[in-house]
Design a protein that fits this description.
With about 50 residues, the protein is mainly alpha-helical. Helix content is about 65%, strand content about 0%. The N and C termini lie close together (about 10 Å).
Length: about 50
């Protein structure tokens, strides 16, 4: 489970990097959403739910 979660997080991190021409105007939205997901996952790991 943790290996799959790690792979998904790495893919998500690569996906929010604004290097594609269509994603340059998105601003901080995708990375802010990913940060929120990372905080939630971190809290779940600390509480022992994952």
């Amino acid at each position: 489970m943790s290996t799959i979660l790690l792979v998904l997080l790495i893919l998500m991190l690569l996906g929010v990097i604004p290097v594609w021409p269509h994603s340059r105007s998105w601003g901080y939205g995708p990375s802010g959403g990913l940060g929120l997901i990372l905080v939630i996952i971190l809290i779940l790991v600390v509480l022992g739910r994952i």
